[in-house]
Structure formats: structure tokens, C-alpha cells
Amino acid sequence: MAARIIDGKAFAAGLRTRVGDRVAALKGERDVTPGLAVILVGADPASQVYVGSKEKMAVAAGLHSVVHRMDAETTEAALLAKVTELNADPAIHGILVQLPLPRHIDEGKVILAIDPAKDVDGFHPINVGRLSIGQSGMVPCTPKGCMMLIRDVLGADLSGKDALVIGRSNIVGKPMGHLLLAGNCTVTLAHSRTRDLPALCRRMDIVVAAVGRPEMVKADWLKPGAVVIDVGMNRLPPTPGKDKGKLVGDVDYAGCLDVAGAITPVPGGVGPMTIACLLDNTLEACLALTGTEA
Ligand code: GUN
Question: Among 115, 119, 121, 252, which one carries the catalytic annotation?
Fold first, then answer.
């Protein structure tokens, strides 16, 4: 049987609407508007596109949205000063520093400077630590979105499911592992040194691929009926005269369609969930910072 195609685009649109409704209610009832500040240093084209989308969707959801564009030569001290200023700004509840930063700036130092209560990326070591010990805190947007999609397919209770995360990045793989563990899955985190990944993968009820290797996960790696979440975004080389390079995930989507129980497409799967969860995190941060009940 063909897999259910998980429509992340539609799910994300629904989530943005729900956030928008709660933002409107908060404004009407408490005169509080959640504020998101994004800092973009330099002119990386992909980052400019991401930041533009974030701004557009934040405004559409009714958030107070500010983007601070700083030039590529900005010093680390100037960036840290901007973060400090936003930490103290009562109109701002969420701060996101777009990564990657220019090489002369220490990313770790900048993340550490963000008030953990305003760290809507969930990258501050305090939030990383909270997630690892099962305390509530800011959860990174992409893995949070993946969990929502998995629960939409399998229901809220994931107890006892075998889950494989392929990739151990700080942004996706590691927090994804913690979230699945918190959901009572039996979790395996695989990476470049993992032995016999196809055989390991064939035992899994849930597979989250976040390695950045185009179409790596094949149909014969899957247990029939597995839920497959593809975080990959890889541009294939262009075919002259035909296309500018197709966007593919880490999963051989066409091949896996016949074996998986449910699968996210690329594009239109996990991608749109990231910004929707960023808006959700900003609302959550605002509620916590202003002592307002949801
Ligand atoms: N660059 C690519 N993805 C992300 C993200 O989720 N957060 C930030 N801050 N930068 C990114």
C-alpha cells in the first residue's frame, strides 16, 4: 500500500493560524503583543531568504517583528551589544541570531549571551540541558516540528516505539533524540561511524533522517509501515537546459513511498514546520516572560 504523505505545509499553516488566534486573544485581553527579533549578520543568500520568510510569517501571525541586519564586518563585540540590548527590551520575547555567522565571530559566545528565556531557537546550553533532563524550556524548532508530525500520524502516545535518528547535529539530531526519548521511544542516534545502518534502520518504527546526504535512505532500509521524517534539503547538480538542480531530501522519496506507512515530502514536509514552531516558541516565551496563562 502506498504511504500516507505527511503534508507539513498544511500542518504548518494550521499551526500558524492557531498561533495567530492566540496572539490576537492575548492582544485583546491583556494588551500584550509577542515580539520576535531576528539578527542577520552579513548577506548570505540562503540566510536572507530564511529571514525574509520568518519576518513575513511573524507579521502575518500578528507578532511584533523586528529584523536587525548588520553588515558582514560587524565585530563580535557589536553583535554581543545588540543581543544585550534585546535581552533588556520588554517588547521583545524571542531572539534569534541567524546562523551561520561570519567566521570572525564565535557562535558559541553569541548563543551564550542570549537570555535563555528569550532563546526561541533552543540553542542556549541552559535550554539544551533542560531538554536533556526532561525539564520544560525552549525546544529547537525543527525537531519540535518533527515531533508534531510524528504524533499527528501515530497519536500522542509513542511509548515503546523503536526510533532511529540519522545525524547527530546540535540543531536537529541530538534534540530530536531527546524529544523521542521523552516520548518513551527506544532511541538510536546513528551517524557517519554507525555500522550497518540499513540493517539497523529495518528494525525501526520511526526514522528521522537529518544527515544532509541526498536520497541516502532507500526503500530496502525500511520496515514496512515505518513513519519516515525527512529533514534533508539537498540541491542536486543542475541538468543543463532542464532544471537548476532538484531539491531532494535525505530519503529516496519515490522508492520509499511503497514501503513506508507515512512519509514527508521534500519540499513541503518538515521545512515549513520550522518557522511555524518559531512563532509558537515566541508565543510561549511571551507567555512565560509576562506571567500570562496560555
Ligand atoms: N540557520 C539555519 N537554520 C537555522 C535555525 O534553525 N536557527 C538559526 N538561528 N539559524 C539557522
Answer: 121
